[in-house]
Design goal:
Strand content: 5-15%
Shape: elongated
Order of helices and strands: HHEEHHH
């Protein structure tokens, strides 16, 4: 039967889209909000399959394409993740330094240990 596949696939896409966007609360909970949004209703959910949407290649965050182009061109979620990683690395370094100091103190005279604390 020629010409049957495309209408069938369109119907499947429509059914799945309705399920995700309006019928299933679990699927609706997986929606994104555009954190870059200025002119649009920022409470409106967006999905990766929506028209006019950009999805970050690294973290899969979803933004309106217009917002992404005009506001940032850099994913805010990726920027936050990178800052958090750097902060944790700095924290780890500080902890390592403190452990080294404590170790050197505990290898010294017990009176010096009491003086430090």
């Amino acid at each position: 039967d020629k010409g049957v596949l495309l209408p069938f696939l369109n119907e499947v896409c429509e059914t799945l889209s309705n399920h995700i966007t309006s019928e299933c609360e679990l699927c609706q909970g997986m929606a994104f909000r555009c954190e870059l949004c200025a002119s649009r209703d920022s409470t409106a959910p967006i999905y990766p399959f929506d028209d006019g949407v950009t999805v970050c290649d690294k973290c899969c965050a979803t933004y309106h394409t217009d917002c992404y182009r005009t506001t940032s061109k850099q994913c805010p979620r990726c920027v936050r993740i990178q800052k958090r990683r750097l902060s944790l690395q700095n924290t780890d370094s500080a902890v390592d330094e403190n452990i080294t100091k404590i170790t050197s103190i505990t290898n010294q005279n017990p009176r010096q240990i009491n003086e430090c604390f």
